[in-house]
Amino acid sequence: MMLKRRLGRTNFETSVLGFGGIAIQYQPWEEAVAAVKRAIELGVNLIDSARGYGDSEDKIGEAIKGQRENLFISTKSHYPTGEEVRRSIDESLAHLGVDRIDLIFMHAVDQEQEFERRLRNGVLDAMRDARRAGKVNYIGISGHQNRVLAKAIRTGEFDVLMAMYNLADDDAQEELFPLASSMDVGITVMKPLGGGYLGILPEVAQFGVAEKAISTADEALRFVLSNQYINTSVVGMGSIAEVEQDIPLGLSPQEMPPEELARLKERARVSGYTFCRGCGYCLPVCEQEIDIREVFRLFVFHEQYGLKELAKERFQKYHEGKVAMCTECLNCTERCPAALDIPSLLKQAASILGSNR
Ligand code: SF4
Ligand code: SF4
């Protein structure tokens, strides 16, 4: 039986592993629907998506037909104005094929100014209106910056948060999780596998640097599950094979002995955290307007998800020209919390995904 934990003040008992709907947008319809169904069969009851994840909501809608009542469905709206959020909630309802969403997240709020801007623009008001109208039950916030998330939940407006937490990024447990827990805010985490980098085998590590691989998926997930603050870890899964690999870890209590934890942390430290966390801090400072985060994401698609053609096609169509214009000004590296050598990594990505290959 899948373990469950109470999701804060929602009082819903959610499975410790949730289905993250980001990857299925890239999978064929049948395979994607089958993956969601298989996860539900294995005991997953929290399914998460976002308006911005292509046709993920449609595929989830198909998979949950006839069993919606036993599930906790969350989705996200990244739009910056109340009017757009109102529209996106209605669209999510239609795409998911449900008459109510359990939880709507204010999506990817990564800077304080951004949070304040969305409040000023009526985003929270729109979410509250949707709750009053019975379209959503709870309101949450997701982001990569613990400080911003802490500020947001101190308002008392948010029932659930979604933070980043994994072996390489575990700061959230210092202040954010205790704060959320004291306010009975449900805690979900994303990127328990570091967006795909932590759960990989050494031979397919990002940028082909074998010795940089930090852990296996098993170790990375056990690390996250052993944190008792966390109600649900949302894992992006795109196929039945991935579901069947990851879900069994949620079936038994996970404890990580201190020696094992110390060993993993040491390995992570020695390896260096040479992967993009997807925080986006580098984006505003690039005068060449290179979408650095997206380029690195495509690289992961190519190296780890087996989506080689899709990654190359998108890189060549949307990013190759811009990446070639990198002036090596290093503005981006100063902002990067992972201390990545971004210009070199862009060159590496271009050499693998570019049209000259
Ligand atoms: S080093 Fe390249 S990618 Fe980074 S900010 Fe400068 S131009 Fe943009
Ligand atoms: S390259 Fe660095 S700053 Fe840019 S999104 Fe990735 S981790 Fe964040």
Commentary on this structure:
- With 357 residues, this protein is an alpha/beta fold.
- The protein folds into 2 domains: 4-271, TIM Barrel (Alpha-Beta Barrel), CATH 3.20.20; 283-353, no CATH class.
- Helices cover 41% and strands 13% of the residues.
- The chain contains 14 helices and 10 strands.
- Strand 7 (136-142), helix 6 and strand 8 (160-164) form a beta-alpha-beta unit.
- The longest helix has 16 residues, at 308-323.
- The radius of gyration is 20 Å and the shape is globular.
- The structure holds iron/sulfur cluster (SF4) (2 copies).
- Residues 276-282, 292-293, 296, 335-338, 340, 342 line the site of one iron/sulfur cluster.
- The site of one iron/sulfur cluster has 14 residues, from helix 13 and helix 14.
Cα radius of gyration in angstroms:
20 Å
Which fold name fills CATH's third level, the topology of the largest domain?
TIM Barrel
Q: What is the C-level CATH assignment of the largest domain?
A: Alpha Beta
Instruction: State the separation between the terminal residues, measured CA to CA.
Output: 48 Å
How many runs of DSSP E, i.e. beta strands?
A: 10
Please, how many domains?
A: 2
Portion in beta strands: 5-15%
Largest sheet: 8 strands, parallel, barrel
Helix segment tally: 14
CATH architectural label of the largest domain: Alpha-Beta Barrel
Based on secondary structure, the structural category is alpha/beta
Mean pLDDT rating: 89
Order of helices and strands: EEEHEHEHEHHEHEHEHEHHHHHH
Residue stretches low in confidence (pLDDT < 50, at least 5 long) are: 200-213
CATH superfamily of the largest domain: NADP-dependent oxidoreductase domain
Question: Given the C-alpha coordinates, what overall shape results?
Answer: globular
| Distinct small molecules bound, one entry per kind | iron/sulfur cluster
Summarize the amount of helix as a percent range.
40-55%
Task: Provide the spatial order of strands within the biggest beta sheet.
Answer: 3-4-5-6-7-8-9-10
